[in-house]
Amino acid sequence: MLDAKDHGRLTARDREILKDVILTYILSAEPVSSRSVAKHGKLGLSAATIRNVMADLEEWGYLMQPHTSAGRVPTASAYHLFIGSMMEARAVPARERRYIQENLKSGATDADQLMGTASHLLSELSSQVGIVVTPAIGETVLKAVDFIPVSGRKVLCVVVSSTGFIDNKVIETEEEVPREELVRISNYLTENFGGSTLREIRERLLRMMSEEKAQMDRALARTLELARTGFSVDGAPGVVVDGTSMLLSKPELSDVQRVRRMFEAFADKARLVKILNQCILGGGVRVLIGEDCELTSELDFSVVAAPYTVGERPLGTLGIVGPSRMDYETIIPLVNFLGETLSRALGETFSGEPERK
Question: Which residue from 29, 31, 34, 260 could staple onto 251, CB 3.0 to 4.6 Å apart?
């Protein structure tokens, strides 16, 4: 087999036949025969001529024959070539753009809600699985913190990030702390540490506790200890998944074993985060197909993903996951638009963030 990356050997006729096979297979989910390509009549070629070209395309690694007597289906290399130089990316229709913008705007009470809305929109508008990776808590930028007495020595620490994510944690103090002092501590930390990530804040606090231990007064010691305990930095990024049931109607998932593998894959949140966060590098939309990663390889799926940001700061990734036979001409612009719109919604809704120090 020749290297399928050697696109230069394909003639214009080869590329048109390959494109026809890809588009037909995306629509039908059935292996494509030379006869069906000939019937489309776009090229004015006989079935025999098309059959010879398809045999060459198979030899070069762009098509494969699932069964001896069947037609052919595209390979991952074919899809990559199609996406890179053949497809006609369609703009997201105006009606869908308005629908996305209205839903993200109306759902913008907090960042977690926005993530859920974005995941649902991705699934609803693509009929695939929508996934959004939320930021790791340690990398979020502090906007405000509030310590609230719960009972006795228990205090609720509420951390609000500059992008609207909220983290709650109940901590226990060595002795009961009056409400007035908790308010003072909350204000001190918000004013002095707002604009830094929780990881940076924790490192500064540990340095302060080490350097000032000898002369530290009781109030400052209590402030630093509360903050050190309350600012959790070890939480992994979260994943919001929507629409796994959408895939059950796909012909590719008629096999029970494959369905089981799919649900196991979506249950492995850590691996989903790792795969999708690969797509942050370099910005823009990235497409993973076939052997590009473990998930797409074992399920014969594709991932179309893009980062979302606030300003220049990448926060996470969103994307669509589904069988490789997906409508890339529609899905790639959809993922790109949703990434841009979510970034804008986060920026507009939580624009009161402090400057980074």
Answer: 29
Indicate if the pLDDT at residue 7 is higher than 60. Answer: no
Strand partners, 64: 73
- Unique residue bearing structure tokens 């696109």: 7
Helices (H), 171-283: 179-193, 198-211, 218-230, 256-267, 269-277
Report the SS3 class of residue 347.
helix
pLDDT tens per residue across span 282-314: 678 999 998 888 888 888 899 999 988 877 777
Res 266: pLDDT? 83
Q: What CATH architecture does domain 94-135+237-349 belong to?
A: 2-Layer Sandwich (3.30)
Element containing residue 318 per DSSP (H, E): strand 313-323
pTM to 2 decimal places: 0.76
Number of neighbouring beta carbons within 10 Å of residue 205: 19
- Cβ proximity of 34 and 50 under 8 Å: yes
Query: Distance between CA atoms of 306 and 132, rounded to whole angstroms?
Result: 10
Query: Lowest-pLDDT range, 108-122, 211-225, 246-260?
Result: 211-225
Q: Provide the token pair at 201.
A: 């804040």
pLDDT tens per residue across span 142-185: 888 888 888 888 888 888 877 667 777 788 888 888 888 899 88
Query: Are the beta carbons of 288 and 302 closer than 8 angstroms?
Result: yes
Domain ranges of the chain: 8-86, 94-135+237-349, 138-230
Give the CATH architecture of domain 8-86: Orthogonal Bundle (1.10)
- Residue 335, number of CB atoms within 10 A of its CB: 26
Give CATH for domain 138-230.
Answer: 3.30.390.10
| Residue 268 pLDDT level (bands cut at 50, 70, 90) | confident
3-state secondary structure of 351: coil
